[in-house]
Each structure stands twice: as C-alpha cells, then as structure tokens.
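Supplementary Data S3. Sequence and structure tokens for construct A.
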Amino acid sequence: MSHYSSYTLKPGMTPWEIVVTYFIIAAIIAGYILFKKKDKMNTLDYVFAGIGGSLVAVADHLVGDAIFLPSPLYPVINPPIWFRILTFFIVIGIIRKVGAGMLTMAVFDIVGDIIHFSFTGEPLWLIEDVLTYGLMADILIFLTKGKIFNIGSKLSYIGIIEGVALGLAFSFVHPFFTYGFIAPFVFGFVPDYLRILFLFTTYLIGDSVIGAISAALAYRVAIIVK
C-alpha cells in the first residue's frame, strides 16, 4: 500500500489497515456461510434477487434522491438510505436464503452504476455493497436459519429487534467505509472526521428506526408473496 500512501493517509480517513482487515474477514465469513448453508437458492429466488436488487437501486437513486428534506430532519431521515433499506429488507424477507443479501446488493450496485453513478471506482463499490450490507443481511439469515425478521412465526418483537440490529449494523458502513475511505480514495478529497462522527450518529438513529419499520413491513409482504 506504500504506492497509495498519499491516498490512504489523509487526515480523517479510516485507516486502510482497518478497512483491509474488515474485508478480508468479511470475505472469509461470506465463504463460510455460503459453504455451510443448507437451503440453496432456486431459479425463482434468483429472479426475485435480480428484480429486487434493481428495485432497491431505483428506490434509492431515483425515488429517494427526488425527495428533499430540510435540516435538521435530514440526514436523520435520509430518504435514499431509508428507501434502500425498506426495499432491501422486503427482498431478503421474500427470499430468506443465504446469498440473497449479497446477490441483491450486487445487482443494486451494478444497476445503480447504470442509472446514476457510472462505473467510476469499481469494483470497490461492488465489494463494499456486497461484503457490508449484503453480508450483514446474509449473516442474519444464516443465524436465524432462514427465519429472518421472525418470518414463518407470528409477528413479534423478535423480528423488530432483528430489524433494528441490522439497521444499526448498516449505520457503520457509509460514515467509515464510503465517506471515510473509498470516496476519498477514488475522488481524492480529504474527509472531515467531525462529519464522519456526525454521519455515524445520525445514521445510528435513522437506520435503527427504519430498520424496525422495514422489518415489520417485510414480514407482511413475505406472508403475502409466499
């Protein structure tokens, strides 16, 4: 990494050692749960993931970005992120098999590049989306044995708690990885550590709230679909 030292040692950036270590461990965990999973995805599941990932991208980049909220509502209420989490939870709630999260986020990233961002910085964004949001969802699917958000049982506080927990896990990604490392690395700006802390604090609140709401809605949708 010495060749990239001017990009990775900027004040405010998340240390590259932490980022690299996370993604190495994440890749190992991803390989483990994919190897150990018992319920394999079928053709219909792949269709749901493909269409669902595309809808997540549309919900985030087109619908969410079109909604303007003044401060201080934003970024605690962050429409692009909230719509992303809402649609993503519904998709994984329908499929409920390990691999659904990572595949859905891979489609989300690619479609997002096509309709909004272009492919600048790839494959870093793809790796980030798959091994953060996608993997976190798949870990929960793996731990609950396919009953994420308590789907398959009566709606209870357990499913809501899972939604909050997943939302809290998501809240780390954008401040520390997206804004704190990959975006500065790709675009060459110097991140503000105070902004990182501000984003993290607001995401903790907002993502936990929409996580609970999305889990309850995903439960209802999953019952209707399957």
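Construct B, processed identically:
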Amino acid sequence: MNQTALSPTWQRVFAWLMPALLIAMLPACGIGPQSTMDDAQTAFAANDYRTARIHLLNLLDNSPNDDAANLLYARTMLALGDGLAAQAAIGKISDNGTDDATRSALLAHSDIMRGVPQKAIDRLEPIAPEARNGEMYRMLIWAHRENGTLDDNADLFAEALERHNDNADLHALVARDAITRGDDELARTAATNALARDDDNYEALLVQAELQILDEDLTGAKTRYANIAKRYPGHAVPLANIVGVEIDMGNYDAAEKLIAQTEAEHPGFPFLQYQKARLAFAREDYRGANDILQSMPDYVHDYPPGLVLSAEIAEALGNREIAIARLERLLAIVPDDETAREKLNGLTR
C-alpha cells in the first residue's frame, strides 16, 4: 500500500490535511502580451491552471480592474491553493462584477486556503440555508472539517445534498469525508455519484485511486493517478502519488526518475519531499531520509504519514525517545491508529 508499514490509517487523513500544504512553486514569467481572455478560459477549462494564471497576469497587467479577469484569476489561484492572491483579486471585483453568493463562496474558499477556516464559518453561517448555493455549502462543510467542528455539524451533508443533489463537488466532499472516516463503501458510492454528475471531478477521481490503494490494487491505482495527471496538467499531487505507488511496488528506480522529473516542475513540494524520504528509507538510507524530513519540520509535525515515517527512521537510527515522541504526536491526531499504539507500547515497555 502507498504508505510505510506502520500506519494503515494515513491514506484516510491525507487529503483533509493538504490544503495548507499544497501551494505550488509558480513561475513568474509570462507567455506574452498577446494573451486573451479566451486563452485564459480555454486553459482553465482544460484544468491547466498554471497556464491560465500566466494569461490572466498578462491581461491584468494591462487592465488591473477588469472584473471578468479578476474573477477568473481568483478561481485560478484557489485551484492552485493560493488564498492570498485569490483574496486580493476578489477585492478588485466591482459590486456589479459578480453576485453576492459567488463572492461569499470565493472569499470563504480563500479563508480556508489561508488557514483561517473560522472566518469562512463566520462568513457563511449567518446566510439562511435556502440562500446558500452548492459552493457555499461545500465551503461551509470544508471549513468545519478544517476547524475540527464537523462532527457537531454533520447534518450539513444531508442538508446540502437535499438542496443541491446535482452538485458533483458536494458528492465528492461526502466521498472524501467517508474515506477519511474509514467508510469505504460510502466513499465508493459518493465518488461514483460525483463522477456521474461531472466525470472530470478531481476530488472524486483521487478518492477512487485511494480506494484502489486500500484494496491493494496498486497497478490500478497507478493507472488512475496517471490519468488524473493527464487531465490536470501541472498538478503535483497525482504525480507524487504515482511515486508513492512505485515505492510500494518496489520500483525504486522508476520512483527516483519520476521524483527528479516532478521536482523540476514543483521544486520544494512537501508531499513529493515526503515521498523522496520514503524512497530513501526503503533503500535503507536512514540518515538521508532523516535529513529530508528534518528540512520540513512543520510539515512533519502535523502530518500523520510524516510522523509515521519519522518514527520509523528514528527507530532505525536507534533514537528511541524521538520515535516515542513522534508516535505520541501521531496518536494525538489519529487516536484510533491501533498499529501506531501497538508500536508505541512496544517501545515503552
């Protein structure tokens, strides 16, 4: 499976934890002054957000207050995980440039991406349920999950789907929540529902790949991730997951080659660095693996897979106290990880 041997639960927590960690290194160069709105819209529709961003920067360089360009730029930067840039673009859209519901949903999305989900909740909760569109519900649910308050607001799922059952993103959100909680059957059903409404839904496609990993169908998962990477050019997550699958399959040379290719386009991407550390660990280069994780302490501290790997590395290097500390931190985040608890008990006997 696409994980280290210690913890079978990490696939279920990965995607909820990633929004604050996924901001890609984006090039500053432009394509040229010939960019048009059609160019930007075409790139955006093809999920090529990096190219859309460059076209939009060219357009906004000439017309910084263009409502349509700022609106699409905000959506593009949210797709790329940059809540600050999105918030700035939203602030430039005139009162007539978009409706209040769209503006509220975009601002809530930027709040989540900037790591302040409570602001998104405060922004959306006062809006009457009948006035919330599907995207507003999606942001409200997502914000509660990031804020640790979703369990007390789980009825939002049913309420949202009752009002917006045709919204693919809401079904994908149900799938993501279900796989996180270990309800694989609901995850399968919800992902299928999402893709029936939008066969290009990124989140649902990722959930299906993760389900294949949980089913130990690594070949199928690798194929699915490769298809996602083709559909979403410039996205590092599916490529980094292919690296993880290659490691799990023992294809270390293939993993190393893909790491090098992906690093060239996404330098410093945390999840890819995590996979690079996994590869070093698999090759028994424990100090090399440790050096990689040491270079990203904030990522390791709050990311269960990173804690799992860090504990294994520490144990391999004979650093028992560090291994214990990592496992204790892991169990504070994922208290039902029985494999980690058994390992901790073994180290503390």
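Residues 83 and 110 are 4 Å apart (CA to CA). The mean pLDDT is 90.
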